[in-house]
Amino acid sequence: MSHLQSPQVVNPDTMRSVLGRFASGVTVVTGLVNDQPLGMTIQSFLSLSLEPPLVLISVARTSSTWPLLRLQGQFAVNILGETQAGVASSFGRRQGKTFDGVPWRPGPATGSPVLKNAVAWIEAEIWQTYDGGDHEIAVARVLDLGTEDYESSPLLFYRSGFTALAHTDAAARTRAHCNKDA
Ligand SMILES: Cc1cc2nc3c(=O)[nH]c(=O)nc-3n(C[C@H](O)[C@H](O)[C@H](O)COP(=O)(O)O)c2cc1C
Question: Cα(180) to centroid of ligand 1, in Å?
Fold first, then answer.
């Protein structure tokens, strides 16, 4: 099947399989609630607006972490580095999340955990939430942001698995092609 024929053919497995072809970075969204660090892995993150500075995340309604972060009204988005697949897996679980062995420091604007070895971090406060079916869409205003380790490469998620930027000849050719007119 190469194209959509009717709404009935859209089932969750098809959605996962087709949409899994969209490669993305991986983040851990963190917050400090009652002095306890909390976090969850989020792939559906994007930069939304420069003026005002807004980012967007989409969170499953089944999440037990998100209601606590939403109540707090602010969080940090940590863009993971290529060495952090273990962190992404650990914070992608429903239970047993722990910051043990995950060094972090409080972000300057919100105190939310900024993870060591993340490539970048963004602290934000919730601006608006929207209905997103079985997810909630949260648009948040950026309060502060920075790069942790400018040289490190991001962790990627593609077709249900973790990967990293390729350093092959093909990848080098693509980069050269894309940078030609820049
Ligand atoms: C690579 C990866 C990406 C994920 N992206 C999302 C996402 O964008 N939105 C979401 O709600 N959950 C996402 N999850 C799942 C959540 O991290 C997971 O359901 C959450 O940590 C559940 O725990 P909680 O009930 O304590 O919130 C992702 C998990 C992984 C491993």
Answer: 37
In this structure, whether the domain defined by 25-179 belongs to CATH 2.30.110.10 is answered with yes
pLDDT in tens, 9-37: 788 898 899 999 999 999 999 999 999 99
Q: Give pLDDT, residue 135.
A: 97
Q: Spell out the domain ranges in the chain.
A: 25-179
Task: Give me ligand 1 centre to Cα 113, in Å.
Answer: 17
38: CA distance to ligand 1 center in Å? 13
Q: Does residue 24 have its Cβ closer than 6 Å to ligand 1?
A: no
**Which residues in the chain land under pLDDT 70?**
1-8, 149-150, 179-182
Own/partner pairs for 162-169, CB < 8 Å, 24+ apart? 162/26, 162/85, 162/88, 162/89, 163/23, 164/82, 165/82
